[in-house]
Amino acid sequence: MATTTKKQPKPIKSKPPVNIAIKNQGRGFSPRASLGARLSISVIMSAVVGLGALAIFYYQGQVSSTKRVIEEKLNAKANEIESKLSPIKQTVADLAASTRLLSALGVKDPNTYKTIVFEHIKTTDLALAVGVAQAPFRLVPARKLFFPYVYKQQKDADVSSQKLGQQLPAPNDDYYYSDLADLYGGNSITQQGAYTEQLAAKKTVWIEPYVFSNFTMTTYVLPFYDAQDQPLGVAIVDLNVTTLAERVSDKVLDEVGYYAILSEKGNLLAYPPNVALAKDLKSYKTIPEIGAVWEQIIKGQSGLVESQGNFWAYRRIPSTNWLIIATVPQSGILGPVAWSTLIATLLVGGLLLVVVGWFIAALNRRLKPILDECNKLAEAKGGAIETSNKDEIERLSASFFNLIDQIAENEEKIREEVARTVQAKERLNQAQESEQEAEFLETEVGGLLDVVSAMEDGDLTVQAEVSDRATGLVADTLNRLREQLAEIIARVLGTAQQVVKGAEGLEELARTVALNTVDQAQSVAEGQALTEQVALSAKNSVAQVNIANQSLLAVQQTVAQGQVAINTLTEGITVLQKGTAQIVQRMKTLGEFVGLAEQFVQDQGQIASLTQVLAINATLVAARAAEQRDPKQFIGVAREFEAIAGQVNTLATQTNEGLGVLQQRTAQIQSVVSAIDAEVQNLGGLVAGFNSGVEQSQNSFYSIQSVTEEVVEVGRGVNESSLEIATAADSTAKYMSEIAILAEQTADLTRNARQQAEQMGTLAQRLLAGIQFFRLPASLVAEADNVTTVDVSTNGAVSN
Fold first, then answer.
1. Nearest in space to 242 (alpha carbons), one of 278, 285, 193
2. Helix, coil or strand: residue 232
3. pLDDT tens digits along 114-159
4. C-alpha 282: how far from chain center
5. DSSP single-letter state for residue 163
6. Beta bridge partners of residue 221, listed in sequence order
7. Quick one: which of 119, 144, 114 has its CA closest to 132?
8. Fewer CB within a 10 Å sphere, N or C end of the chain?
9. Each residue of 55-82: b (16+ CB within 10 Å) or e?
10. How far apart are CA 262 and CA 250, in angstroms?
11. What's the rounded Cα separation, in Å, for the pair 233 and 223?
12. Residue 668 vs residues 117, 493, 661: alpha-carbon distances, Å
């Protein structure tokens, strides 16, 4: 037999057996190892932490805003009460000024001072009573004590046991007048030293509130002096505190919190939660929650403190030094914040779950075919890859490297099979088979070795020839192994290409989301800037409205002063009208007297005429007597009658002359009286016209005052609206800042997703690079390309 050269097979590399366990053979993934679960947990935890921090910042901002609102509302209440007290003080000042003026003019009539007191109580609604207490013998020198006092009947007052004095006639029957010096005998006024301290100190004072009948009242005392700085008396006004306290009965915020007013000594003047305590002027010590903060708020003029879960804002009322407080529980702020945070957390959490779920579902749809093929291959080899604690990317990597190990294992089996074939060939040669059989066997084994070498170099397109000899079984097994390996590589190639394209699409999607997030952040920043501009404009509007309100208040005070001046002028004109009427009446009386004087002159003329006649008669009698007998007797009588007649005649002549002069003077007086009467009537007409003009001016002042009050109210409404706009703009700016922070967090999450997509694309590229080591048949390559195209188009349709 001819000797032939045998081709030696390549050495077989020994590798440890691959550990394959049957685990996770189903198509589901372990929730603990899922990439989606990990990503969802990370995103949700980040969102919860961010929302928690945002809730804390929002709560702090809400607390600051609430404190500011509480202080603003408290200041508004204090200013409202102060505005109600200012007219009271102005009324007392006007009363003191009017009384001082009347005293300087020398008015000593008690009724005039009574009228002044009555006119001043009608100028204010809150005044319960108004009075003037004179210093001894000053206003009315005829009396040591004089205290005109006008009281206004209250609807809910129990005054059955009170001495109200004299009720005024209708339409002023709601008022009662009394002279307290007479009503109480002076025992409670001057003799006990009431108001003497104020007169000596020359200062005004608000007396500590006290209970009168069934309501609370206080008294404002103003001493006044003459030009030599000597005391004239004190002007007082009694104020109904109960009516004033009703202005703080509303809530501080939305149905939460309350106001309270305390006197300078700490007695309750207004306490809406328990009106009976304020009605009885109970001390602050009866309210434990007020007593807990009393030492903190009594020392300052205004401020805000926190105690026992409540906010306490306080401020002094300048006129009376009373303390007005406003309290709001912190739970009224924390509750809405907690609900807002919970709702925002649920909304954001749900949105993130939807987005992450959609992303994970899309990723799993692309990874599932690869993992299914790897599991099928592992099942075909008798097991599955252990992936219980790994995510999708790690399972894909494990499947790929397990596939490489299986290929190496199959190659090792082929080498072992080839080695056994070579050994069988050598045994056949040793058994001295025929040379042709040996050469043919050697040729077949060489062909098998060439196929194995080509497969080892990555060429899976070669195919071993199958014969009916012993090597035919080996060739057939090798061909089947090559076909299975080529199919697996083709599937892995198509899946890897699909993963690469999917990763590219996912990266492009993440890039688009990042760009949209940046645009959203820019839009939020622009909206925040615009909101800040709106807040600034609202604050400027508030400042302008405050200036306008101050101007209107000044105008209102000026109108009030003008109204008081008009009232005083009206009173003077009334007095002038009364004087004019008295002058007219007296001129009429004088005219009547002149008429009587004329009548008297006429009567005297008649008497003079009769006297002359009597003198003539006496002369005739004397002549006749002289002619009678006994001349001696009648001569004396005649002479006496003649003397008497001469005297009577002389007297009559003088009387006629005097009556002539008296008649001339009476005519002159009558002409003067007529001229004076005409002038007085003209003066009365002028006074009436001037009075009409003053009434028109007074009506104009009333109209200006009402319009000014309406404008002030409108200004207050505009001020409150501007404050609400400013507050809303501040809240919107805060919300826009929070949205900007969320947009930045979303951008960070998008960048993380993009980085993971890039990492997945890199792994897929590496996988493709490893697979490209193999050369596949053209039919399998075309089939892999078709599968990739179909999957990509399908995924694109889903993405869209």
1. 278
2. strand
3. 999 998 888 887 788 999 998 888 899 988 888 999 988 877 655 5
4. 32
5. -
6. 205, 236
7. 114
8. C
9. beebbebbbeebbebbbebbeebbeebe
10. 17
11. 6
12. 47, 147, 11
